[in-house]
Write a structure and sequence with these properties.
This protein is an alpha+beta fold and 204 residues long. The chain has helices spanning 2-18, 100-112, 115-130; strands at residues 26-30, 38-41, 50-54, 59-65, 70-74, 82-86, 90-91, 133-142, 150-154, 163-168, 172-178, 182-186, 193-197, 201-203. The strands form four sheets. Strands 6-5-4-1-7 form a five-stranded antiparallel β-sheet, with no helix packed on it. The chain has a five-stranded antiparallel β-sheet with strand order 13-12-11-8-14, with no helix packed on it. Strands 2-3 form a two-stranded antiparallel ribbon. The longest helix is centred in the first third of the chain and has 17 residues, at 2-18. The relative contact order is 0.12.
């Protein structure tokens, strides 16, 4: 009898370890550059594994972020307890609705840009990287031009580079390298690394 009770107790403990804890998850929001939906996948990799989608601005419970650029989220649809999305499309605040006029303006500008402009952009990035130097890590705080705005975190030190995420007023970041007019920083909350303009941060 004692052995049977002990076996049942062990089984219960093992089951408890594998049941996801929804209460421990943090709420984030979907932010995509074009305002479109974000694919939800069954594995942390691109491929034929899309199991759903999240709308722009939709709240999502994030369990953890991974070093490879993916986040583990709660997903109770289709018998899946967890799923995966790219962490660079998640922000920790409710994003403002996308403006159609802004999107149109951006498309027009990119269409009319010349090849010489692209070359100038590459030259600017190269200049920034040549000036880069590693520094002992220190903390800076995001200071957008408007208190209600945000500062862009990008893949490369250029305004034309793809956006990783946005940082609201007061967001703390860790500087790991200094460039000519940019910082390479790490988000201590998500582990994401990118480049931010030195004009819009102040040292803490």
């Amino acid at each position: 009898m004692t052995k049977k009770l002990l076996s049942l107790a062990l089984i219960a403990m093992m089951l408890a370890m594998f049941i996801p804890s929804v209460a421990s998850a943090d709420s984030w929001y979907v932010y995509t550059d074009d305002g479109k939906s974000l694919n939800v996948r069954s594995e942390p990799a691109k491929g034929n594994n899309v199991i759903g989608s999240l709308k722009y601005g939709e709240s999502v419970s994030v369990r953890m972020t991974m070093a490879n650029g993916w986040a583990v989220i709660d997903w109770v649809h289709a018998d899946n307890y967890v799923a995966y999305v790219q962490s660079r499309f998640l922000v920790n605040y409710k994003p403002a609705p996308k403006s159609t006029s802004k999107t149109t303006s951006t498309k027009t500008t990119s269409t009319s840009s010349s090849s010489s402009g692209s070359k100038a952009g590459i030259a600017g990035i190269n200049a920034e990287f040549k000036a880069a130097k590693q520094v002992p890590p220190y903390t800076v705080v995001a200071r957008p031009s408007r208190a209600s705005g945000w500062v862009n975190l990008r893949w490369a030190p250029a305004t034309e580079a793809e956006l990783i995420t946005t940082c609201p007023q007061g967001k703390e970041l860790t500087v790991i390298a200094e460039l000519k007019s940019w910082y390479q920083v790490e988000d201590p909350d998500t582990g994401m690394i990118g480049f931010i303009s030195s004009k819009y941060v102040t040292r803490k």
